[in-house]
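Worked example 3 (structure in, sequence out).
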């Protein structure tokens, strides 16, 4: 598909920016105008549109607008991720699971529910599943691991569970052998024993009604997602995540993210450099 070489005017940028923001909470500052321009020029080509103003009108008024909003979200999201990303933090995640199990603070029923909010193509979620298989040996506890994302494109790739060597650069040979089927020199597919404890849903973090339908979680990983939001959307996402957590449940953010000046809802119980939050 050839990309159309047209400029995004400031006026149309402002309209598109507001549209993206109102749906997703993702905020494109003036400095990120080039990014929106590059990402959306592919949509202009795909729809045979001549300029961004026409694209904006298509998103607002076309009979296909709902379909195109999905494409818009696929295009504007940043989906970078990898297996075993930020291992020091994931070690703390495993410790927290062990602590939940040992203190039995998850209540009478023996199921632990984990939510990868903004799961992208699934690497974080499958990493969690592998860490559980490798580290938690309590046979009477069941795990349910739910991945959600606003982009349908990344979710479809997550469900396929096929990855290249780059996505798996931090995985050991032993993990590759145990949890993946090798398709060719640089392609691996995740085994069913891992897939079977995972579920993926297309859910917008701005939409509390949809989040409530997921039922409550013991632990939420929302890493490298709210960095793309402005202060207002961060607040909204954090309130929605809080709603989705059990009392006593934990929230992990990305290592460069924090709730400082965003929300006082959670208690900071960070360990070392890991900002870890608890719903009291
Ligand atoms: C950079 S990836 C992070 C992936 C993974 N959590 C990690 O840390 O490796 C951010 C993901 O958040 C998703 N996202 C952005 N805004 C969202 C929203 N409002 N609701 C749900 N997901 C969103 C994007 O589609 C993207 O896949």
């Amino acid at each position: 598909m050839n990309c159309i070489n047209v400029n995004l005017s400031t006026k149309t940028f402002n309209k598109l920016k507001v549209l993206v923001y109102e749906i997703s909470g993702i905020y494109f500052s003036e400095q990120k105008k080039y990014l929106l321009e590059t990402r959306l020029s592919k949509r202009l080509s795909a729809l045979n549109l001549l300029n961004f103003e026409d694209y904006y009108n298509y998103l607002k008024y076309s009979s296909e607008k709902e379909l195109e909003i999905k494409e818009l979200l696929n295009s504007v999201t940043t989906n970078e991720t990898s297996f075993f990303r930020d291992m020091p933090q994931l070690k703390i995640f495993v410790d927290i699971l062990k602590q939940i199990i040992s203190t039995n603070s998850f209540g009478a029923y023996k199921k632990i529910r984990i939510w990868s909010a903004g799961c992208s193509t699934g690497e974080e979620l499958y990493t969690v599943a592998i860490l559980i298989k490798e580290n938690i040996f309590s046979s009477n506890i069941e795990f349910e691991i739910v991945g959600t994302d606003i982009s349908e494109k990344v979710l479809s790739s997550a469900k396929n569970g096929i990855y290249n060597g780059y996505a798996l650069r931090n995985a050991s040979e032993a993990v590759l052998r145990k949890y993946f089927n090798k398709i060719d020199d640089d392609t691996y597919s995740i085994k069913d024993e891992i897939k079977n404890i995972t579920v993926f849903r297309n859910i917008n973090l701005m939409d509390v009604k949809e989040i409530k339908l997921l039922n409550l979680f013991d632990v939420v990983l929302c890493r490298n997602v709210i960095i793309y939001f402005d202060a207002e959307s961060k607040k909204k996402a954090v309130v929605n995540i809080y709603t989705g957590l059990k009392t006593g449940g934990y929230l992990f953010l990305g290592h460069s993210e924090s709730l400082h000046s965003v929300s006082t809802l959670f208690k900071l119980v960070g360990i070392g450099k890991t900002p870890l939050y608890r719903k009291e």
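Notes: The pocket of S-adenosylmethionine is lined by residues 24-26, 77-81, 85, 118-120, 124, 149-151, 154, 204-206, 223-225, 228, 254 (CB under 6 Å). The chain has eleven helices and ten strands.
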